[in-house]
Design brief:
Structural class: mainly alpha
Number of strands: 3
Number of helices: 16
Radius of gyration: 30 Å
Low-confidence stretches: 48-60
Strand order of the largest sheet: 2-1-3
Mean pLDDT: 79
Distance between the termini: 108 Å
Helix content: over 70%
Shape: extended
Largest sheet: 3 strands, antiparallel
Length: 407
């Protein structure tokens, strides 16, 4: 039985090297993984470090930025769609001339693919480079034989999310400046002007208006118990994090997120677009509907939606059609149910799912446009409201005291 020399990383981040006896590199890889290690390189013991074996050694896997993941997904999908197999496509990315963390990642992935590891499991072995959702979608693509289509869809999803972040960032620049200026103005009012004004108005002997007294009381409270406010806010944040880590808390929060104004409709529409597009890709590539829904369930990060898809799997597994199963679940809108019904009646469920995906992609883009257009006026309105209340309270207090002095 041949021996293989290996280098692997442990769960603590340390590097381990040694020899292992196995009949093949794939068996050696599985034995190393069974030791809870992450293989970096595997070669036949005694071979030189030159030639093809040295080519298999991969550099350290680094954390990839969202831009790197997008570039990797776009390039790999284009290479696969052009007719290359997975291993040669990864070799092309690994051979890039410019310095990029993608070279080390591609080398590690190519090495594991050549050793018989599935591409989705190889992606999971790259630490935090790729999300669980991305790895699950790749696994679905491998099962359906539609890896290029899945990667192309993921690239489009990354582009949409990147564009969304840029648009929201640009929309928040001006409101952020206004908000910061408003907060600074409130701090100056509450810290310097209001205490002096309170001393001045108290000498007049006049009873201050209710708004002014509330403002003075709030200023005195924060001045005396600011430490208690910090502890309270910190306790609330820590309690929320601890609650969110529980299964019940995660389920509740994932359900509440879908009902938050402005944000909830966007998350719902995004899920419906992904639901339709993924099922269309899987079904059109020969995966039976039940398995397609099960794969989509594993790829869904939202626990509440994952539970809904689990119920959908049960109903479809019992023999119900997709449209009738969706009709019994209030979460899904009537439009998508009608589209599914027509697709089942015409025998073109994949085409119906594709039309549904295009519809919800357009709706998703329109919702993003509406939200980004509302961010600036809402932020400015909130700042103006707070500053206006403070200014009104101070001015009414001054006017009341002055009118009392005149009498």
């Amino acid at each position: 039985m041949p021996s293989f020399q290996f280098k692997a990383t442990s769960a603590s981040g340390g590097i381990e090297a040694g020899l292992i006896d196995a009949r093949s590199k794939a068996e050696a890889y599985n034995a190393i993984v069974a030791r809870k290690l992450r293989p970096v390189s595997i070669s036949v013991a005694g071979e030189s470090a030159t030639g093809e074996k040295s080519e298999r050694k991969a550099g350290p896997v680094r954390h990839l930025s969202s831009a790197d993941v997008l570039l990797f997904t776009e390039e790999l999908s284009e290479l696969l769609e052009s007719g290359l197999q997975l291993e040669p496509a990864l070799k092309v990315i690994e051979s890039r001339k410019e310095r990029s963390p993608l070279k080390a990642v591609a080398a590690t992935l190519r090495q594991q693919v050549r050793d018989g590891v599935s591409f989705s499991n190889a992606l999971r072995s790259c630490g935090n480079c790729f999300s669980d959702l991305f790895c699950s979608m790749v696994a679905a693509g491998e099962t359906a034989g539609a890896l290029p289509s899945i990667l192309r869809r993921q690239a489009e999803y990354f582009v949409i999310m990147t564009d969304l972040r840029k648009r929201i960032t640009m929309a928040l620049v001006y409101p952020s400046i206004v908000f910061a200026a408003g907060i600074l103005l409130l701090v100056i009012f509450m810290t310097f002007l209001l205490p002096q004004l309170t001393v001045l108005l108290s000498k007049t002997g006049q009873q201050l208006p209710l708004m002014t007294r509330l403002l003075v009381g709030t200023s005195d409270f924060f001045a005396s118990y600011w430490w208690a406010v910090i502890i309270l806010v910190g306790g609330i944040v820590a309690g929320f994090i601890a609650w969110h880590r529980t299964p019940e808390g995660r389920m509740t929060w994932d359900r509440v997120k879908l009902r938050i104004p402005l944000v909830g409709p966007i998350l719902t529409t995004q899920f419906l677009a992904e639901f339709s597009q993924t099922l269309s890709t899987l079904v059109s590539n020969g995966v039976i509907l039940l398995n397609s829904i099960a794969l989509l369930q594993r790829a869904t990060a939202n626990v509440y939606l994952k539970e809904l898809l689990g119920k959908l799997v049960e109903r479809v597994g019992e023999g119900s059609s997709l449209s009738s199963s969706l009709r019994n679940m209030p979460f899904f809108p009537p439009v998508i149910i009608d589209i599914m019904t027509v697709g089942e009646q015409t025998g073109d469920l994949a085409g119906a799912l594709q039309r549904s995906a295009k519809r919800y992609d357009r709706e998703f883009s329109n919702q993003i446009d509406r939200v980004t257009a509302l961010i600036q006026p809402i932020t400015i309105l909130v700042v103006a409201l707070f500053v206006g209340v403070v200014a009104y309270s101070m001015i009414t207090g001054i006017l009341t005291s002055v009118s009392g002095l005149r009498r």
